[in-house]
Amino acid sequence: MNTNTRIAIIGAGAAGLSLAWRLRDQGFRTVVVFEKEAQAGGKCRTLLVDGLSYEMGAIFHLRGAQPVEQMVKRLGIRTMQGTVQPRERRGVPLFDTESPRLLPNPKIPGLLRSAFRYARLRKQYPGLFDPGHHNMAAHLAMPFDEWLAKHNVAELEPLFACWTSGFGYGPNSRIPAAYGLKFCHPAMLWRIFFLKGGRCFTEGYQNLWTRVAAELDVRLNHRVSSITRGERVIIRTGAAEHEFDKVVMACDLRAIAPALDTDPEEAELISKIRSHRYHVMVAEVTGLPVRIAFVPGHFREHRKSGLLCWYHRWKEKNLHTL
Ligand SMILES: Cc1cc2nc3c(=O)[nH]c(=O)nc-3n(C[C@H](O)[C@H](O)[C@H](O)COP(=O)(O)OP(=O)(O)OC[C@H]3O[C@@H](n4cnc5c(N)ncnc54)[C@H](O)[C@@H]3O)c2cc1C
């Protein structure tokens, strides 16, 4: 694509801003991000209480997540160790609400065997490593938990579920294997369990995106009310009209659908998107056994209103993210 191509991006969340950053690096001259809110970050939202950051959305990034690490380095963003559990525990503790107690550490030899097996199995699907999902084998539409069980690596399910179900993507019984396999890189297990690779942003995840947005052409308070695609793309925000060559929708397609000149195929695909409400709160809590834990018993669909995880970021304050 010619670098004179004018590109509009709808949504200044992680996806829209990462894309704008990458396009700018590749020399594209006109890249404009439209954001309806007064702030950038989307679901990376940080609450500041007495100058300390509390996450209301994304919390960690893993070491080795290249695009994020590049931004962190270039902008001089401060990060800190994300895993705050006691030394004797490996990885993120799992809590059983029935007993109620922390589940024992997973047995390392068995875990390693499953992790290597999973890594080998994943290589059978070259389409996984392409952008998007269009090159996936059709049978990967099966639920991720079924795929893991079918391939004798079911013991990895609760560990992956910390990142899929625990952080709001949905239970593994509802997530297609194609998505789970793409998202759950084997290195994720390695980094979480052995290298304590989860990192947090000292000033909050949202601060990263605020800083990234400041480097780019991001129009805050610009709700896109209409998109007409043809030879040119015409975007309306309030009374203003903007002309581009391409548009990328980096937001919930259901939210933008009323503004979009959808064709029947697009409308049908968008009508299939489902989501559940997911609440994040910061509260004072006492008596919890560790500072961070996931509750795998609540990752099941029939338990979907239960607490999924807690996270106590600042030792000196009794505020927990739930
Ligand atoms: C509780 C929780 C914990 C999580 N933890 C992690 C974690 O630890 N690590 C991790 O990597 N990920 C985590 N995630 C996932 C991560 O937060 C999301 O995947 C990511 O933030 C999504 O970014 P996005 O840009 O795709 O969408 P969004 O963040 O939803 O951004 C879309 C943007 O589009 C804007 N928009 C919508 N409609 C319009 C319109 N008409 N005009 C203009 N703008 C519009 C919205 O206001 C929004 O800012 C977590 C998510 C949640 C909810």
Structural account:
The chain has 322 residues and is of the alpha+beta class. It folds into 2 domains: 7-80 and 202-271, 3-Layer(bba) Sandwich (FAD/NAD(P)-binding domain), CATH 3.50.50; 83-196 and 276-321, Orthogonal Bundle (Guanine Nucleotide Dissociation Inhibitor, domain 1), CATH 1.10.405.20. 28% of the residues lie in helices and 20% in strands. The protein is built from 10 helices and 18 strands. It has helices at residues 14-25, 66-75, 108-122, 144-150, 157-164, 177-183, 186-193, 205-215, 253-256, 264-271; strands at residues 7-10, 31-34, 46-49, 52-55, 61-62, 79-81, 95-96, 101-102, 198-201, 217-219, 224-229, 233-237, 240-244, 246-249, 282-284, 292-294, 309-311, 319-321. The strands form 7 sheets. It has a 4-stranded parallel sheet, with helices on one face. Strands 5-9-6 form a 3-stranded antiparallel sheet. α4 (144-150) crosses α6 (177-183). It is globular. 31% of the residues are buried. It binds flavin-adenine dinucleotide. Residues 10-16, 34-37, 42-44, 57-61, 167-168, 223-224, 250-251, 255-256, 259, 278, 280 line the site of flavin-adenine dinucleotide. Flavin-adenine dinucleotide binds at residues 10-16, 34-37, 42-44, 57-61, 167-168, 223-224, 250-251, 255-256, 259, 278, 280.
